Amino acid sequence: MLADEQILRSMREQIDHPATVRELLQALKIPREERPAFRRRLKHLVSIGALIETRNRHYGLPEKMDLVVGRLDMHPQGYAFVRPESQLDGLEGDIYIASPNLNEAMHGDRVVVRVERRRDGRAEGRIVRILERSNATVVGRYVIDGTGLGFVVPFDRRIVQDIQVPGETRGAQPGQMVTAEIIRWPTATRNPVGRIVEVLGDIDTPGVDIQIIIRKYGIPDSHSEESITEATRLGSVVREKDLVGRTDFRQVPIVTIDGEHARDFDDAISIERLPSGNFWLGVHIADVSHYVREGSALDSEAYERSTSVYFPERAVHMFPQELSTGLCSLNPNVDRLVQSCLMEVNKRGEVVRYEMHDGVIHSHARMTYTDVNKILTDRDEETMTRYLDLIPKFELMGELFQILNGRRRRRGSIDFDLPEAEFVLDEKGQVEEILAAERNIAHRLIEEFMLLANETVARHLVETNTPSLHRVHEAPDPLKVEEFESFISTFGHSLPGSAQHVQPKHFQKLVERIRGTAEERAIAMLMLRTMQKARYDATDLGHFGLAAEHYTHFTSPIRRYPDLVVHRTLREQRQGLASEEKLEEKLREREEELPEVARHTSEMERRANEAERELVQWKKVRFMADKVGEEFDGYIIGVAPFGLFVELIDHFVEGLVHISTMADDYYRYDERGHSLRGENTEKLYRLGDRVNVQVTRVDMERRQIELALTDVLDRVRESERNRGPRRSRLPFKQERPAGKGAKMQSKHHRPQRPGRRERATKKGAAKRRR
User: Which of 101, 280, 282, 626 is the most buried (most CB within 10 A)?
Assistant: First the structure.
C-alpha cells in the first residue's frame, strides 16, 4: 500500500489535473485488493489538507489550485491572516483575509484559503473550507444585556464574536470569568451559541489568571483516569525483567545537574578521560519509550499536549506525576532505565566515535547549577568537601565544556546572551520582584552536552537512513536579511556577502563585534526577529542558528513528545522486530506518520510558548499597577507607526509609548530604519535607543502598560510655559456677560451681522431642528 507521501509524490509527477478516484486508481496502478484502503487514504489526505476534494469529487494538489492550508490568526478589528503550512511559489509571509471573506471561520481554526489576489509577493485570499475547529470551548466574562439575554465576552480579543448563552449558567454571576462550550458555530448572520461548563470566579482572585490562560489556549489541565491508572500500574521501581538486554551503567559515577526547584530529571551525565587523552562523555536520558507504548492512554494524551507548559508558579506536565517525577525521573540513589549516547570527543571537540545503548543507571548525586558553579567557579570549600569524590568529574566536565563551546563558536553557531526575567512570587502567586535570571557555567555546561548528544543522534539517524523527526531551523528570508543589513549599516556594521548566501558565522562574528557596545542590544534584538522560527520536520534541513548540518531533539522525552518519537525510532532500529520485513514495514508506517506529527508538535510548542508569554506579561502588568507616575530607564525594543515599545531595564517589563503622547512634534515612521523622526526637531527615536519613561497608565483589561517619554513631556511643558496663559483670539479685552441675555460690553466692540457662511450654518441648523 502506498504511503501518503508516495501518493502525493506520484500525483505531482504523473497527473497534471484534478483527478477522479478512477483516474487515480488507473494512473497509480493500485491493485484491486488495495483499493478500499487507498480510498481511505485519500479521505485522510483531504482531512489534513494535503489534498483538496472538489464539489464534483475530483482530487487535486492544493498548491496547483492556488489553495493554501494554514491557521487563522484574527485581529480584534475583524480582519485576519492565515499562516501557511507551506508556501505557494511567488508568495511570502501570511495571507490577508478581509472580514467578508472569513466564511464563518474563527480565530485559530485550521483552514483552506484560495489566493485571489497577489501584489509584490503578498497575497489576499478567501477561506473556502474549515478543516479543524480550534475553539470548542471559550473562556470569557459572563454578562447579561438589557433584554436579560446572557453572553460570554471572550477573554481572547481575537475571538471577535460574543458567545450567546440561552440556557443553564451553572450559577455564574455577571462579571465572573467562565468557560463556555460552543454548541452551534457562527454563521454570517448570527453569533455562536454555547453553554457554560465551568465557573472560574472573579478575575482578580489569586490563581484565576493561570486558569484563564490554560483554558484560553485549550491546554489540558488534568490527566484522565485511564492515563493515571496506566502510570500507577507501572509502579515506582525498575523490575528485574526490565533489565534484560540492557547495558549496566550502575557502577559508573553518574550525576544529574538541574535547578534547585526541579522535580523531574530526564538527563544525567558521566565522563572520564581515555588513555588517548580524549573524553568519554555519556549523556543518559530517561527511557520513557520503554513504559509509554504507542496507542496507550498515556501516549495519546502526551501526543495531544506534545509538550509540558511552564508557568511562573506551576507546570502543566505532559505526563502524570507518577511518571514525570517518579518512575521516569532520574532521581538519585535508585535504579532507572535510560537510553544512552556515549561519545568519544577529541581535543578539537569532534565526536570521533559513539555508541547508542539501552541502559540502566544509578545516579550518584542530584546536583544543582548553584553547587556545580560553586565548585568550578567559586571553588567554595564547603561545597567541594561535600562532593569530594566527584570533584575530578566536574573538572573534566568544565574542561570539555570549554572545548565544545569553542568549537561551536568557530563553526559559526549564533550565541545570543540577552538576559531573561525571573519572578519572585508571594504566596498568592503575585510578583514581588523581577530579577535577571542567572546563567552560570553549570547551565552552559549542561546545554553544551545536550547539544552534542542531539547532534550525534541526528547524524546517526541520517547516516543510517532512518525516518525520524528533526529539529530544523532554516536560513532567514533574504529580504529580512537586506533590511537587517540596512539597519546595522547606520551603526557602521555589515554582514559579508549577499543576503541570498548569508551564513551563520556571519551573524556570529557580528555578535562578537558588537558585544559591549551601545548598539549591542538593538542589533541583537533585530537579529532575532530576522531569524526564522525553529520547528519539527520529517525532513533533515539542518539548523541554521546552531550551524549544525544535522539536529534533532533526543534529551527531554519527559517534557517533549518529539524526543519520545526519536527514542522509539532508535529502539526499533537497535532491537529490530521479528523479521527484517516487519522492521521495514514499521519504518514505512512511521515515515508516513511523521509529517503530521511534525506539524502537530510544532503547533503545540507554539501554543505553549504563547501561553507562557501571555501569563508572564499579565503578571508584569499586575506588578506595575501601583507604579503609575514613576520613572524608569528602558530600551526601545520595537518601533511601529503608532508608537514605541520600551522594555524597562530594571524590571524586564514592556510598555507602549503611543505616538499621541509625543506631542512636541509630528513624528514620521521609517520602516527600514526602525525609527520615528520628528519633522521639525529632527529628534530621532530608533530601535535599541536608551530612553527614560514615565508610567502613565496600567490597563488591566487589555493587559497593557502605557508609557510616556520624559524628555517629550519636558519639552511639551516648557513649550506651554513659554506660551504663557492662553489669550483671546480677539484683539481686544472682552468681558464676560453679567447673566443670561446680557449684551457684550466693550467700547471697542460693535456687533456685526453674521457673514454668509455663518448665516448658512444657522439656517441649516434651524432646518434640522424642524
Answer: 282
